[in-house]
């Protein structure tokens, strides 16, 4: 199957399964989305959604977050992974936002300058809060792009570039959500039934299947060793 045909078929299946994929993190505006996404690093969306109601009841604006202070923020978000670092970064980012005018704006430079906000978090906010085309890459997307032969698994930056090149720009904002949901519901990292999978059954690269049977997908940025099947 030609790459273009594979990409088109993958898109059709994703659109059929998830025609209007919801944003999995609860929020009310760009700032609360920014906070929720920042909290989601190394933490499940479910856990973030359990923690943020109490946090947002105390601080749903940059001003309120600054007033709350790092210690109270930490007390409120303690159940999420890396809570001490995230509490400090939420407070610092809120301070930076106040210095920049107090609003979360569709500005890549502003977002990526905030404490604890990397390119992925900025991409989610740009895509989901402001409808700016972006393709945030999480672990599900990185893994599936590698399985399907759409990227080589060498880095999230490479995966993002490859997926942007593969899919039409007007699909990016829904496509990244669709792949996340697909990874969770149909394409798990372990004990995956390749032939029963709606997409892997035709899209998985044989070499990837062989590699994954003996080793895990390398961490983003890690050097890849030679596959055991070579």
TrEMBL record:
Instruction: Give an example GO biological process.
Output: base-excision repair, AP site formation
Q: Keyword set for this entry?
A: 4Fe-4S, DNA damage, DNA repair, Endonuclease, Glycosidase, Hydrolase, Iron, Iron-sulfur, Metal-binding, Nuclease
Q: Where is the HhH-GPD domain?
A: 39-185
Pfam families per record: HhH-GPD
| Metal-binding keyword on record | yes
For this chain, the family text in UniProt reads: Belongs to the Nth/MutY family.
Q: What is this protein called?
A: Endonuclease III
| Source species, domain of life | Bacteria
- GO function terms (MF aspect): 4 iron, 4 sulfur cluster binding; DNA N-glycosylase activity; endonuclease activity; metal ion binding
Q: Which SMART domains match?
A: ENDO3c
Q: Does the keyword Nuclease apply?
A: yes
């Amino acid at each position: 199957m030609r790459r273009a045909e594979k990409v088109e078929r993958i898109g059709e299946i994703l659109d059929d399964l998830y025609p209007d994929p919801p944003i999995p993190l609860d929020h009310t505006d760009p700032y609360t989305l920014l906070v929720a996404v920042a909290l989601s690093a190394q933490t499940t969306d479910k856990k973030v959604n359990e923690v943020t109601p109490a946090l947002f009841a105390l601080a749903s604006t940059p001003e309120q977050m600054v007033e709350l202070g790092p210690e109270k923020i930490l007390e409120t978000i303690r159940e999420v992974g890396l809570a001490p670092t995230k509490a400090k970064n939420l407070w610092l980012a809120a301070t930076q936002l106040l210095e920049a005018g107090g609003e979360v704006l569709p500005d890549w430079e502003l977002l990526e300058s905030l404490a604890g906000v990397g390119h992925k978090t900025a991409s989610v906010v740009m895509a989901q809060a402001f409808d700016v085309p972006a393709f945030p890459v999480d672990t599900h997307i990185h893994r599936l792009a590698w399985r399907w032969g759409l990227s080589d698994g060498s880095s999230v930056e490479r995966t993002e570039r490859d997926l942007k090149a593969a899919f039409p720009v007007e699909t990016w904002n829904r496509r990244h959500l669709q792949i996340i949901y697909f990874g969770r519901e149909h394409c798990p990292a372990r004990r995956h039934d390749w032939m029963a999978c709606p997409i892997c059954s035709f899209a998985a690269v044989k070499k990837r299947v062989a590699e994954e049977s003996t080793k895990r997908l390398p961490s983003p940025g890690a050097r890849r060793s030679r596959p055991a099947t070579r």
